[in-house]
Amino acid sequence: MTDSKIAAITNRIIEKSRATREAYLDKVERGRSNGPARKRLSCGNLAHGFAACGSDDKQALAEGDAPNLGIVSSYNEMLSAHEPYHSYPDRIKKAAHEAGMTAQFAGGVPAMCDGVTQGREGMDLSLFSRDVIAMSTAIALSHDMFDGAICLGICDKIVPGLTIGSLSFGQLPVIFIPAGPMTPGLPNAEKVRVRQLFAEGKVGRKELLEAESASYHSAGTCTFYGTANSNQMLMEIMGLHLPGSSFVNPGTPLRDALTDAAVKQLASITTHGNYTPMAEVVDEKAIVNGMVGLLATGGSTNHAIHLMAMARAAGVIVDWQDLSDLSDAVPLMCRIYPNGLADINRFQAVGGMGYLMRELRDAGILHDDVKTVMGEGGLEPYTKEPFLEDDKLVWRDAPKESLDDGVLRPPQSAFSASGGMKLLTGNLGRCVIKVSAVKPEHRKVKAPAKVFHTQDAVQKAFKAGELDQDFVAVVRFQGPKACGMPELHKLTPPLGVLQDRGYKVALVTDGRMSGASGKVPAAIHLTPEALDKGPIGLVRDGDIVEVDAETGVLHLHVDDAELAKREHQDYDLSESHDVMGRELFAPLRKTVGSAEEGATVFRW
User: Any known ligand binding at 113?
Assistant: First the structure.
């Protein structure tokens, strides 16, 4: 039975989503086909659609009734997580043929790496790339040749973009196939130590590059629990992956077997089998399950934005209050870096998703009455993990106990009774804060503000010795309308150093910190943003700002009469609007919505 608190929040979401969900499902119904979608095409349309195919596929597409699968991929050689996808299309086509189907590479989507663009001009395109990926997915599937779709994507904006785009084709069964994380590299504690030494000027670029290269060393997803691995958790707990497939390393026989199995499973849920369209998988309860997974694992704060946008693409209205209320009801079961020292491989080894989902399901914290790509059996298949026996893929029950309770625990003895992501409200607006990695003694900060307009300005002040005191760094004009809401990772090392020196420090910003949000309390995604005349634009150096992650308060201690006299400060953003392609995104900056609505250019 579902926990009463979870059930109440879910019912609230269902009620407020009633009209939008009904409109979405009506749109999906209009897109359905009573047979292979390509049968609706004229002879000229169809001839164009299979002109480059081999003769057997041409005949199957022209005369047969077998499903045709569309492959949408984010493959590129520069992203370690996506490089393994280079061989997937041929493997998928072979598996499709073995299942009596055809498959075509429908289209590619862009995939940029936040790890490469951190602190650079390109980072201003990062968040918007999600909506571009959604549109690219729609273009790939718009030929109406397909009866199901396979999405290949891993990292930050790519999976949310693929999800949003695929939901526009919610009449299609859709399965996501992961590529897996790279094997462990330099221990996370050592990586953090070298980064902070570099921030203090105690080691040089050579030493820092050696440490970073030892951390990020091969094909596969980065091993820390940032947005990329949070994405994989999310796809599995929402039922869009095969069970246990999220964190199997690339280039292994098990990884290949899972890819083949995913294609054959998709064959079984097309219109020619146990029809399970994506619109029926991604519903209100699946969205709640996604938020539960995010909270139980201490996942990326980026999903305080992405999940809002993904949900709305399915007609489901969720906001930060829903996320915060769920956080109060969901225990934190994992310690994975940056919320601990273990990497994602360790999580997988000690129990992984099968253990996590079984424990959450048995405790009534996950909705079990959901459809998944495995059909209508609820989440029971996801309480198992895959193995190869005599080269045959089998699933066994997940371990009965965690093999390392310093990494993964049952709900009854969780690391924290709450999920650690909260809504902060007050006279500065609404924002989120992730406290799962913040020690209790650092969760309340009341100190003078130091106002900055860029993360580079914070770094400059740090290097000049101007920040050796208690303070709240207020970094504004970093919202989606201002400059695309870049991640502010440059702030992590200096603020971490200052906290280690014994100062009370916190961050308040209308920008993002992402899945690497760590030990310093960071009130992020503040809305309304500075460019929208949000109250953050009224803050002055020396004002007392209170950040209280325990009570959910963000307050500027300036009386209303004084605030009424102040004018919003302006900031010249022209340097953030050109070079590195940023000028092309001006229409998106003008139309983007608020962070709490998903910071998306789409209007549902």
Answer: no
